[in-house]
Amino acid sequence: MKKVIELKGVYFSYGDTLVLENANFVVENKDFFALIGPNGGGKTTVLKLILGLIKPQRGKIQVMGKRPENAHKFIGYVPQIIKFDFDFPISVMEVVLMGRLVKKGLIQRYDKKDRDVCRDALEKVGMKDFEDRLIGNLSGGQRQRILLARALAAEPKILLLDEPLSSIDSTWQNRFYKLMDEINNEKTILLVTHDISAVSTYVDKIACVNRKLFYQGTKKEGMEKLSEMYKCPVEILTHKVPHRHLKEHKHD
Amino acid sequence: MIDLLQYDFMRNAFISAVLVSIACGIVGTFVVVKKIVSLSGGIAHAAFGGIGLGYFLGFDPILTAIPFSLLSAIGIGTLNKKIRISEDSAIGLFWSFGMALGIIFIGLSPGYAPNLFSYLFGSILTVPVSEILIMVMLDIIIIACVLFFYKEFMAISFDEEFAEVAGLPTKKLNLLLLCLVGLSIIVMVRVVGIILIIALLTVPTLIAKKFTQRLSKLMILSTITASIFTICGLIISYLFDLASGATIVLVLVVVFGIVSVVRR
Question: In Å, what is the CA distance from B96 to each residue of A225, B72, B120?
């Protein structure tokens, strides 16, 4: 199957506010795909539509050829970290085990196999020795790694990440993209971010969304379209990498 | 002190203290970690309508309060999504609606409602054996549901969105949890009364949370904490001739205060 995620003529509005207007895009098998755009531009809405958390007013969404609400088993989801209550009494292992929910029936308990899969996932994100720690006692970056491990524990075909590097330290950032590269050998990755520095080096395709879908394709042309869309203040989005720096990356 | 147990009413009171603690320890843990304290308060007060209905129809008020409290749990849980009002407003609506119904029913009932105060403020010393049996059954239902749905309840409490993405029926699970809150309220109503129930649902767990940070241990420790201090409150209220429900709540709150200072 070539098309992994497909949006066709999708409209979505919250009340009277139109958030997405005639959005069309396709994510193909084993793409490393970034969805970018300004805050409030509809990135998270697209993600929620793909996850089946909300339904479009018009248009069609397919995930692995199915409707999103029937495609749970294909998806590993890494949500934004800001919405969590980290005072919650839960251990790292218990969080990662949630990734196994999709494989389990109601009432069915987690077993040794689930725990083994979770330990592997924790090892991949470099958090092997943390399984008995409380999520509340970890740093922001470590928590994001735990949420990534949870998504991997679902053994998904598609990894969906919403701002996965918002509080990651720079040493992990490089390892993160190395890991994504490795994961990308077997899985499709869709990354939602406003951090263009990340996109410039690592992903291979991008789509820009700001109410309408502005562009979809390879990232080289995309970067130029992007500055058009933002009317060129791309620097505002990322203080680390100024606009000119981005263009130097054209060769990849 | 041992003499106390020679009285039947005292023995019943001790037994109900333990039964109440099981309900509030287990359900209270979810109420606290899922932050549904005021929602639970709403269900508790709405249950008063059921108690009034019991008086009006001449049944044991506890029996009519059970369906009432379950319906208000489901009502509060669905109404805010159906007619687009905030959860906060749905709570206010059910809270006052249930109380108002209760007052009307009791007003319509012939004669004087002698035990009314025991449902509002609690009266652990007058719990009859028949109600102890009801409490045992409700406790068993609560324990069974939490044993069965432990991983699901934990998931919807920590990260409901992820649980939904993983394909869990989160709406139904939420309603089930609210129904358990409703049942636990029935277990507690005789002991501390509708007005003070919310203290039993929260304070034992808040105390236990100072000592453990695991959900399963929190439920057990909350139950133990609740047992110890409801019995302490019961003894103090007996010795000094104070209102039992209020004494139990005061003991719990004072202990929470001390624990908070000692274990900063």
Answer: 57, 12, 14
